[in-house]
Amino acid sequence: MYKDARNNVWIGTSNGLYKKSDGKQAVLISDKCRFVNAISEDKNKNILVGTEKEGLYVVKPQQEKNTYVILNLRLKVRDYQSFSVQSICISRNGDVYVGTKEGCIYFIDNNTRQISEISGKFGITDNGFVNIIEDNSGFLWISTIKKIIRFNTTTHVATCFSEVDGMKVKSFYKDAVAKTNSGIILFGGNNGVSAFNPANLAVKSKVNKQVTITDILVQKQINFRR
Asked: pTM above the 0.70 mark?
């Protein structure tokens, strides 16, 4: 369920998308948006609906009351299309980040509305992304099944945190995420809840390693030796 800026409650089910206004019964908005996993609202008051089998839908309200145009956005990398949307995050500037079970993160630019896949480009790779949330400084915190990733949307640097960093939760659950008024982020999993304040978290510095070429072999013959 999701409550929008107009106090409407959107309810996603396996049979379709419903909307409940104050004092009224829930009404079916679309039977196309089935097996709903995530619902959010963008800066233009459009409702974004992530589904398990049909990808991402945009529900655009029209001037006529209770009338909507529903579009299915193609989340595609080369010839491969992602259909299982697990999470949707609207950033403070209106950009949209979509995480899929297939292990892709899609970025929808708020100004151009262009869609691009960023997980492979910026090294955010995993088997599947279950939650995305923005902290008070504008960083994205992304949970996968086994780890948490901090993503800097400005520098495009990703930092991973897992059991080796002292996290007690070994497996994270979908929709088990929240941010408190003080900025503390909570991720739920198999061993309880992992809670932290991003402002006080020491992020591992990136180590630059020097690569040295010592030999070059062509057809098993050394053509170069340092």
From this structure: yes
